[in-house]
Amino acid sequence: GEVVGGIVVMRYGENADKVITAVKEKMKEVEKGLPEGVTFKTSYDRSDLIEKAIASVKGTLIEIMITVSLVVLLFLFHWRSALIILIQLPISVSIGFILLEAFGISSNIMSLTGIALAIGVVVDDGIVMVENAYRTVSEKQEEMDNNQ
């Protein structure tokens, strides 16, 4: 049998997930008109890689939220402090995605990796800020108790 090869080249800056979805839809459409026995064989498809990267970022976010909550609860014994960090994480990540969209940057592997790394910085800063606020409030409370 005869074989014909083809390749899809994505334009710079395009969203890979959208391009892959559009190509797959077009392939289904074209396949309907092909003679019997003629099929498409995909040799490389990045959609699995993209889905795994997105799932990895989601998983990392959930794992970090649970770990940070437990650490803050164990060391500060203060559930409100843990709640502050839990609220801070998804808001920070959401703002990151909003800014990516606003500047026309696609959510590719590099940007998702950057967001995963930034989550660590946000957590570290959140813990430092909460611990400092907790210490300051405790000192002021102690000072007020001593003045009475």
Automatic annotation (TrEMBL):
One MF term in the entry's GO annotations: xenobiotic transmembrane transporter activity
InterPro entries membership: Acrflvin-R
GO cellular component: plasma membrane
Cross-referenced Pfam families: ACR_tran (PF00873)
Transmembrane segments: 53-76, 83-103, 109-130
Domain of life: Bacteria
Alphabetically ordered keywords of this record: Membrane, Transmembrane, Transmembrane helix
Record's protein name: Efflux RND transporter permease subunit
Species name: Colwellia ponticola
